[in-house]
Write a structure and sequence with these properties.
about 425 residues, 11 helices, 5-stranded parallel β-sheet, alpha/beta
Length: about 425
Amino acid sequence: MKKLNRRDFIKVAGTTAAVSALGFPHISSAAAKKVVIVGGGTGGATCAKYIRMADSSIDVTVIEPNKEYYTCYLSNEVLGGARGIESIKFGYDGLRKHGVNVVHDTVTGIDVAARKVSTKGGQSFSYDRCVVAPGISFKDNIEGYDVAMHEKMPHAWKAGDQTMILRKQLEAMADGGTVLLAPPPNPFRCPPGPYERACQIANYLKTTKPKSKLLIVDAKDKFSKQKLFTQAFDRYYKDIIEWVPAKDTGGGVKSVAGGTVKTGDGNAHKAAVYNIIPAQQAGAIAQSAGLADDSGWCPVDHKTFESTIHKGVHVIGDAAIAAPLPKSGYAANSEAKVVAAAVVELANGREPGDPSWVNTCYSIVAPEDGISVAMVYNLVDGKVAKVSGSGGLTSLESPAEDRAREVQYAYSWFDNITHDAFGA
């Protein structure tokens, strides 16, 4: 594979064309087969669309409870006030135009022996191949942080209603208040996300509530793109953001009660607004269907992302164990295309080819300052591996004009990936 320098990689990745250009097949005819996709987020929607584009004879059904999907990527800008919630909302008419059967219901069971998916609404769908894209669910690692508490101390780690709860709390907070942000332990969805969120919220406080503070009570001692985020904290939010690592808190937030959180060292913290993000695992249906192992995540064959526990079922997106691929929206999009290609090949009695994947993760740390990490991956000895010399990380010394350009790349990437997944 030809090596790309960082700037060229960002340009390619910004158009979401990289994976498509890696040799996605087009097949005009095949024996009728049925594919059921559980979950209509970025991964599930992309997979459905690309199966239909490659082989229109395959019957594809997506089962998703929500009629609109809110992207987690760029949702931090909603919290910071740079964009409205409507800008991250997408429907499913684009999939329907590709001939995908979209069913708004909740999957309650996957019978791998009978190859059937059942729903809360009493429906049953047979399949030849099932793709599960369930996203995440939360572990009970914080005492007292139950579903009812989500309304008072929102996690906002599933975009939509939770995003707006936290945004409204920030708006209602008096100047001089403290926001407490508690990032989760590894592994979790969108590893840089909490720290981009800190920047977005801090920028809002800086411009509208300058006496306020943001306290990051972390469950970790290090995090993705740490030097770049620390640079942003010092450059833009020196008197607003305070980051406290796990070693100084006894492992982060351990319990919540009333208007107080307690950390592992026994200290109590009070704030005007709390953003508590619990530890994570694969989505609930992956757990109940027996697709997850003791780690809480789903082991898969990296060539096809077929479950190593249940044959005939593929798991994509955040739920899959696919390191070094991160749990990101772009990785889900990339995995979905690989699985779509594999499903088409398998449906036609052929062996899937060797896959490649791509990921870019943007973080907007100030209105004209964006940072990113990018990487290409291939299959080595049956496992996902980074392609040496591909991608890269924003330089700490990058000039202001390059940082401003990265913000525009992020917006272009967002427009393209959402059209790629949900557009006609």
